[in-house]
Design goal:
single chain; Lipocalin; two-stranded antiparallel ribbon; 10 helices
Length: about 375
């Protein structure tokens, strides 16, 4: 049993539990679509169009949207609660305002009809503001995108607040603790970039295919289905009535004018395209922020590597100087060892020769040290 919350067009909500099969029958979707909403695809992003529903899997928001209602999976999760609250704020005031203003004249004024033979076909409330209001399914999609984009923006802002002080501290002091912080920071950045990229790619995929966007107009397809049923019913009840041409316009009793229906224009996806482009640009900006942080990390790592290379070079120079000094001392030791042998030598008979000999050999070895050191500097093996 999965927990679900249902919101209809009027803003009425209901919390219930049911099996997968019941949801499949209710939303008329394939059973495999429910696997996308399962825990295996918890961090994937998909917006799938079906005949009578739209399957939305954006980060933590998992919902099934039809032309008349939205079913939200696991609505009591902490991350999903803002989405539920936003739906209440968006949908409830509209139904409440219609109830307060409702009267006999308003009810007729708020409901637009299309003649179909000798019958009148009611159009849902979402068609009331054709030019200024999105269909119900796109209102839900917009709220879902807004919540997801806001959550990603907040995570990126937190990442930026944590990243720059850690990287500056690493640039000042290269230590195991600071390196561990940077490693954790890079892991979080990689995961966050992947999340943003998935949502961005899904929106980009929809923007690249007008047919997929047209399939997301559930209210349009619902109205076309109702029109077809009404025409078939009118033809069956009165076979001698003249054929009604395809309906292309919806008359508004309120304005007294005739407006072109966005629901009947099959190739008109401008509203959805503008909606998706707005959030695509927002996600692109979020992605650029993450890339800026990653670039700053790369720059800091390059700076740290330069520091480490400089320290390594200083150690090599110190090792070279010590090697030259060891060579000079070894030469003096060689001379002392030669004269320490028990072999007769005329110098042994000269009084006071010991001090002169030791001083001369020490000075010669020191001069040898300076000569080798100068040669190393001349070859630029040592810094100046």
């Amino acid at each position: 049993m999965w927990p679900w919350m249902r919101f209809d067009r009027a803003g009425q909500s209901e919390l219930f539990e049911c099996e997968k099969s019941a949801i499949v029958r209710r939303a008329s979707i394939p059973a495999r679509d429910l696997r996308i909403l399962g825990p295996v695809f918890s961090h994937s992003s998909n917006i799938l169009a079906r005949d009578k529903a739209m399957v939305v899997n954006l980060e933590f928001i998992k919902a099934i949207v039809t032309a008349e209602e939205v079913l939200i999976l696991d609505p009591l999760r902490q991350e999903v609660l803002p989405f539920v609250d936003q739906l209440r704020q968006q949908l409830v005031p509209k139904s409440a305002s219609k109830t307060q203003e409702g009267g006999p004249s308003d009810a007729v004024d708020n409901e637009m009809h299309v003649p179909a033979g000798r019958r009148w076909l009611p159009v849902p409330e979402a068609a009331e503001g054709l030019q200024c209001e999105l269909p119900f399914e796109f209102q839900v999609l917009e709220i879902a995108l807004e919540i997801v984009c806001t959550d990603l923006d907040n995570n990126v802002a937190k990442l930026e607040r944590d990243a720059y002080p850690i990287l500056d501290e690493l640039a000042r002091n290269v230590s195991t603790k600071n390196l561990e912080h940077v490693r954790s920071l890079k892991s979080n950045l990689t995961r966050l970039l992947a999340r943003v990229q998935k949502v961005r790619d899904e929106i980009e995929h929809l923007l690249d295919d007008n047919e997929d966007m047209a399939q997301l107009y559930l209210s349009r397809k619902w109205i076309q289905s109702q029109q077809s049923e009404a025409l078939l019913g009118a033809g069956a009840s009165n076979s001698i009535s003249p054929a009604v041409p395809p309906l292309r316009r919806i008359s508004s009793n309120r304005s007294g004018s005739v407006v072109t229906s966005n629901y009947t224009a099959d190739n008109d996806v401008e509203d959805l395209e503008m909606l998706l482009e707005a959030y695509f640009m927002q996600l692109d900006g979020t992605r650029n922020k993450i890339l800026s942080v990653r670039e700053y990390i790369d720059d800091t790592e390059d700076y740290v590597n330069i520091q480490l290379d400089n320290q390594r070079n200083e150690l090599i120079q110190l090792q070279l100087i010590l090697t030259i000094a060891s060579f000079a001392i070894a030469m003096e030791t060689l001379i002392a060892g030669c004269f320490g042998m028990n072999i007769p030598c005329p110098l042994y008979d000269i009084n006071g020769i010991f001090g002169i000999f030791v001083g001369s050999s020490g000075a010669g070895c020191f001069l040898l040290f300076l000569l080798v050191l100068g040669y190393a500097r001349w070859k630029k093996l040592l810094g100046s």
